[in-house]
Amino acid sequence: MVVSSTEEVPVTLKPDYDRESVxxxxxxxxxxxxxxxxxxxxxxxxIFHHPRDEFENDTELDKTEFSIPVIDLEDVNKxxxxxxxxxxxxxxxxxxxxxxxxxxxxxxxxxxxxxxxGIHRFYDQDAEVRKELYTxxxxxxxxxxxxxxxxxAPAANWRDTLLCYMAPNPPNPDDLPEAxxxxxxxxxxxxxKVGDLLFELLSEALGLKPNHLEDAGCTEGVVAxxxxxxxxxxxxxxxxTSRHNDNDxxxxxxxxxxxxxxxxxxxxxxDVPPVxxxxxxxxxxxxxxxxxxxxxxxEHRVLxxxxxxxxxxxxxxxxxxxxxxxxxxxxxxxLSEDNPPKYRETTVAEYVAHFYAKGLDGTSALLHFxx
Length: 371
Fold this sequence. Notes:
Layout: H1 19-29, H2 32-38, E1 70-72, H3 80-96, E2 99-103, H4 109-123, H5 127-133, E3 142-145, E4 160-167, H6 181-205, H7 212-216, E5 222-229, E6 239-244, E7 250-255, E8 261-265, E9 268-271, E10 279-283, H8 285-290, E11 300-303, E12 310-317, H9 348-358
Parallel strand pairs: 1-2
Antiparallel strand pairs: 2-10, 3-4, 4-5, 5-12, 6-11, 7-10, 7-12, 8-9, 8-11
Helix pairs in contact: 3-6, 4-6
C-alpha cells in the first residue's frame, strides 16, 4: 500500500512511564518509604501521586460543630450509674460516628510511650538490618513491608508497616523483631484487656448480654500494626493512608502527638486530634456486618505531613487472613421482620481476602457481601 505524504502514519510511541517497573524497583530496595527519605528525595516518585479529587473537602471547618466523642472509662465497672452512662455514650458514638476516643482505659502512660518508642527503634535500625526483616509472608509471626496493596492500589501511600500476629496463637517471642519485642508483647496484653472491656460495652449497647460479642469470636484474633509515616517533601501530592474502612471487628489505635488522622463525618473530613494518654477506637466492617448496620464502619484517612516521622500502633481485633471455621453474619437477636439481614454470612478470612484483593481503592468491601 502506498501512503501519501499527507496521510498520518500510526506510530508506536514508547511510554514515558512504566509504573510496574518503578513499583518493582521500589519493592526490591526492601527499604520502604523510609529508604527514600533516608536517601534525601526532594520530589516524591510518581507512584505516590494521588488524584486531586482525593483531597477535596479540605475546606476550613467549624471545629466546634464536629468533634470526635471522648469517653471516660473511669470506674466503668464500679459504679452502675456511671456504667450505664458509658454504655449509652458508646452506643451513640458507634451509631453516629463509628469513631471515639477513650481515656482512663487502664494502660499506664509509661507503656503507651514505650510502645511508640519501640516502633521508632524498629524503623531506626540500620538499613541492612531492616532489609533482612522485610517480608510479605503472612505465614510468619510478623510481616514488614511498604503498602500491603502496593501492586494493586491506584497510588501508593507514604507509609511503611510492621504487622504482628498476637492471637489466637501467641507468637514465639524469639520470632518477633528484637527492637520492639518486649514492649509489643506487654502492650498487646494491655490492649487485649481494653478490647475485652470495649466488646462488653458494645454488646450492651446493642441490647445484648455483655459477653455476647466475645462468645461470638470477635476477640479471638489480635493483630498489632505499627505504622511509620516519614516526613514527606511534597505532602500535597500524596496521602499517608488512603481513605478506607477497617476490615476487622474493632480497632484500638495509639497515635503519637502529630495530628494526621481524619474521619469522614457528614461528608466532611474531621480531624481526630491526639489526646495525651487516649486511645482511638473505631468500628470495623465486620462489626457493622454482624450488627446489621446498627454500628457504622466509617471511612478515614491519614494525611501526609512535612513533619515526621509520625508513628501509630493499631490493634486490630480480627484473625486476618489466617483461616478459622467461624461463620459470621447479622446477629439473629437483632433481626426482625422489619429488620431483615442486610448481609450474607462469611468468614473473617474470606472478608479480609476480598479486602486485600480489592486494595484501598476508595470503595467499601462491605458492598460485596450485601444481600
